Amino acid sequence: MTHLQMSGLGKAFGGVRALDSFDLDIAAGEFVSLLGPSGCGKTTALRIVAGFESADRGRVVIDGQDVTRLTPDRRDIGMVFQAYSLFPNMSAAGNVEFGMRLRGVAPRRRRDRAGELLDLVGLAAHGGKYPHQLSGGQQQRVALARALAIEPKILLLDEPLSALDAKVRVNLRGEIRRIQKDLGITTLFVTHDQEEALAISDRVGVMSEGRMEQLDVPATVYREPATPFVAQFVGVTNALLGSIEGSHVVVDGSRVPIQEARSYRQGAKVRLLVRPEEVHLAEADGNEMSAHSAKILATVLTNSFLGPVSRVTVRLDTGEGQLVLADMPSPEGGGFAPGQQVLVELRLRRPMLVER
Amino acid sequence: MAASNPVKGGRGGRRDRRARLGPAGHYLALAPFLVFVSVFLLYPTVVVVMGAFQDNGGHPTLSNLRAVTGSVYADAFVRSIELSAVTALVGAVLGALLSWAIAAAKPEGLVRRLVLAGCGVLAQFGGVTLAFAFIATVGVTGLATNLLRELFAIEPPRGGAWLFDMPGLMVVYTYFQIPLMVLVFLPAVEGLRPQWHEAVQSLGGSTWRYWRHVGGPVLSPAFLGATLLLFANAFSAYGTAAALVSQGSPIVPLQIRAFMTSEVITGQQNLGKALGLGMIVVVALFMGLYALLQRRTARWLR
Questions:
Q1: What is the mean pLDDT of chain B?
Q2: Which of A43, A87, A113 should one mutate to test binding to chain B, selecting the residue with the greatest count of B CBs within 10 A?
Q3: Which residues of B103-122 are buried (b: 16+ CB within 10 A; e: fewer)?
């Protein structure tokens, strides 16, 4: 199995820096996703690995071999594109066979292997169909089979699910992960869909402005964001306006104890980043409040049932009337009705502050 | 919410009115077009087809068809087909190369906009104007002809009279075939997806392999279709040839002209109609093939 290493990659388009000192090490058989907003450099990184873009600086090493200057056809890389990459003049089987044909594999062996791969992606009965006769999801399955047919060292997936509808996307991402695990192929996956990245990756790299903000296992990226950007980009986050007062952040008149506040100057205006699941709601009975309580009085605006949780939107009754999202377990959360007064309590696991 | 309602209502209202028109309303909207086509295409076609099978007295006969398959008229057909085939092929190849160059240029660039605007004009620049432009440039006393004579003592073939025969027709026809090819073929070239080239490369293929196995085959129906269209365009062209050729009638449209206007050949209009029928058959055959190829192009390059 193959190990992929990108070190010190830099790339600029005109005056715009797409990648800046970008490092990434992917272990053999590992599935790593690059996640980030449009223009963060994730696709540029992937295209540099594929050889479709040349890096201004840095190296790409595959299994100890420096491939930075190699042309794409000499890198032994399988790639699945965003959409519409199947050759329209070839059947599904013809598409899968194509890479083997270029490598001089005997016709019979090609046909057998294409059949195996189409079977692997669940399209054994569709080998004779042309791309225009296949659905978007089926086309992407064929594209995956085509990429795997050449037994590549590395599999690159460039947002292969982004053009598909939600249900197909969820099914296919599971299929991709199953096949990747079965074959043990080292895989780099680029996506802007955080749910997708968190669901199927061994590790997720969150990128912003050409740099890696955090690279870790999905649970850590979600629960322990390394930077404010990651906290705000991954998952849903409340950004509550407050100010520093000793070891507290004062949010709409309520003091929230946070050790990190000490490293900020007194009176500094900050945003306190809070996940909806870190917000606890309780019915207000009027006795629990005090001037320095960490609990804040609020009014319920909406309550949306999301399956395992109910997402409750409340408006803080004091100060600037900030909106706060709270995810409450469904049976309990379902009891909050619009207009009801509640107490908001912040049960912070890993408080994060950003100066305004 | 309230602000968006009137907009929704307005759209719905237009949809309702369209729905109320019903199929009859749609046909009513098409009526002017159908009348135009009936008067200026269907009726003349029927007249030509019927006339091709009648003698001067209106009796049924096959003699007109037998006559036009005879030597003089068959030669005119052969020359028309030669002229159309050569100018279609040359125009298709050069136009395809120009399309490829335009597709590679910046989408909003000045060069691309200028070339496309030029093609739009030149593709329609046939007839007397084009013939005059060539006569004034490379005719017997044309500007370029005189310059060649005076500066380099070069005498053009047949003193410049080549322009008024088949070679001249081929050059002049090619002049409007190339821009037409660009207009017809450029969308197909632009329909080639960069992912196909990259997919071939990632599978271990070179650019040559891409063109051989993917780019070329995907473009070939569009190229063939456009070539057929160019053929039909040249085959049915009349004005340019009429303005250039005053002696004899080397091609079918000029033969038909002779039957319609000549004071020497009289009473043989139905022979002209038989020639017209031949042209209709040839053009219909080529346009049918063009339509078939277009269907494949649309499927592959949508």
A1: 86
A2: A87
A3: beeeeeeeebeebeeebeeb
pLDDT for the residue B162: 85
Q: Is B202 on the interface with A (CB under 8 A)?
A: yes
Nearest chain A Cα distance for residue B287, angstroms: 23
- The residues facing A326 across adjacent strands are A312
CA max distance for chain B: 84
Count of A–B CB contacts within 8 Å?
A: 69
The minimum CA-CA distance between B115 and chain A, rounded to whole Å, is 27
Nearest chain B Cα distance for residue A195, angstroms: 26
The pLDDT score that the predictor gives to residue A1 is 60
Q: Do A87 and B218 touch (CB under 8 A)?
A: yes
In chain A, residues with a C-beta closer than 8 Å to the C-beta of B209 are 102
Q: Which A residues in the span 61-90 are in contact with B, Cβ-Cβ below 8 Å?
A: 71-79, 81-82, 84-85, 87-89
**Tens-place pLDDT, residues A55-70:** 999 999 999 999 999 9
- Cβ burial of B168 (10 Å; 0-12, 13-18, 19+) is buried
Q: What residue ranges define each of the domains in chain B, with the CATH number in brackets?
A: 71-301 (1.10.3720.10)
> Measured between CA atoms, how close is A298 to chain B, in angstroms?
26
The interface predicted TM-score (ipTM) is 0.84
pLDDT in tens, A98-155: 999 999 999 999 999 999 999 999 999 999 999 999 999 999 999 999 999 999 999 9
Ranges A88-92, B180-184, B227-231, B252-256: which has the least confidence: B252-256
Comparing alpha-carbon positions, the chain B residue that sits nearest to A83 is: B195
Whether residue A207 contacts residue A36, with contact meaning beta carbons closer than 8 Å, is answered with: yes
Q: Give the H or E element holding residue A16.
A: strand A16-26
Q: Are residues B204 and A150, on separate chains, in Cβ contact within 8 Å?
A: yes
User: What is the band of B12 on the pLDDT scale with cuts at 50, 70, 90?
Assistant: very low
Q: What is the pLDDT of residues B124-145, one digit of tens each?
A: 887 888 999 999 998 888 899 8
* Inter-CA distances, A39 with A15, A190, A240, Å: 14, 12, 27
Sheet of A16-26: strand order equals A16-26, A4-13, A57-62, A65-66
Contact A278, A350 (CB under 8 A): no
